Each structure stands twice: as structure tokens, then as C-alpha cells.
Amino acid sequence: EIMTDCRIRLYQESDYGMVREVYAQCVKDLTPDGFYQALRFSHIRLFMLAIFLLSLLTTGSFLVSVLGIILVMVVLWMCSREFFHSYVHVTFSNDMLDIGKYYLQREGYGFWVAECGGKVVGTVAAAPLTHVGGKKHVELRRMAVIKSHRGRGIAKALCKTIIDFARKKGFQAVILETSIAQVGGQ
């Protein structure tokens, strides 16, 4: 079912709690992706191999070596989780502390929500960037769509909203930066 009961609209102060909840959940949901991406790094794999071999050489126990690997993986998971939870905390202390003031009361900024059935299910923001050479660019920020509503074209509609905003305001490009864990945004 494609965006039939959904609409994209400008953020309202009454959305504050739901917007923060949606954004926080979407960012925290990146924990597994961050963990699996970390496991792909060769230096992480080499470290795990070294732990396994050192444990095996020092204890002579295969079980202890496997437990060493499991411990490394648990620590890696906790680091991934902490990274994304900290990112939410920093974001909520900065631009998302007062969304209306930061995004709606400043020239070249904007914040929109995707609303389905009266419930906020997605967010997106725009912030101006001064690019090298003085060109006016706008950054697509705070993109989030809750899991239950993904695959319905909501993120595409939110992106189109930013592109339309950029054209209307005279920006020359829309910039999107993602982390390695944000596979959907790449």
C-alpha cells in the first residue's frame, strides 16, 4: 500500500513528542546495521582472529577461545548501540531541542513530517550549506521513517519535499551525507 492515507506537511509544535520519538527509534534501529558493518572491517576481523589465537595458545581451550570471540562481539554490539544512542542525545541537545525555533524561524531552513492516519511516521529537515565556491546548497537532514511504514514511498515523498523546497528557495543542490550504517540512505 503506497502512501494512500499519508501526507507530508510542515512541522507543528504539537508534533514535538512524536517527532522526537520517531527520530530516536529510527536512529537506534541502526544498531544492528552498525554492528554488522563493523564486522566487515578487516582490522576488526584480524583483531578477533588474534583474540581467538592468543586465547587458544595461552589456555589451550577451544571453548575459551570461542568465548573470547563472543566477548569481543558483545563489546562491539554495545559500542554500536552506545554510538547511536549518543547520537540521538547530541541531536536532541542541539537542533532538535527546539525544532520550531531552529528550523522554522530561520531563512533557508525547514522541517516536515509524514503523517499517516493522524500519526507522525516520518521526518525530514533542510538546512542551508555554503559550499566551496559560494554555491547555495541545502542539506537533507533528520530523515526518518518508522519501520512499519517503510517501502511505501514515504521517504521518497519526503526527499521530493526537500527538492521542491530547494528549488523554491533558489538552492543549487541538495546534499545528503550518511553514515556507513545508513544503508537505506545510500
Write structural notes for this entry.
The model has no long low-confidence stretch (mean pLDDT 90). The protein folds into 2 domains: 97 residues, Gcn5-related N-acetyltransferase (GNAT) (Aminopeptidase); 62 residues. Helix content is 51%, strand content 20%. The chain contains 6 helices and 5 strands; from the N terminus they run E-H-H-H-H-H-E-E-E-H-E. Helix 6 links the parallel strand 4 and strand 5. 24% of the residues are buried. It is of the alpha+beta class.
Write the layout of secondary structure elements.
Blueprint: E1 6-10, H1 16-28, H2 31-40, H3 42-59, H4 62-93, H5 99-104, E2 110-116, E3 119-130, E4 136-145, H6 154-169, E5 173-175
Parallel strand pairs: 4-5
Antiparallel strand pairs: 1-2, 2-3, 3-4
Helix pairs in contact: 1-4, 2-4, 3-4
List keywords for this structure.
6 helices, 186 residues, alpha+beta, 5-stranded mixed beta sheet, Aminopeptidase, elongated, single chain, 5 strands, 2 domains, 20% strand
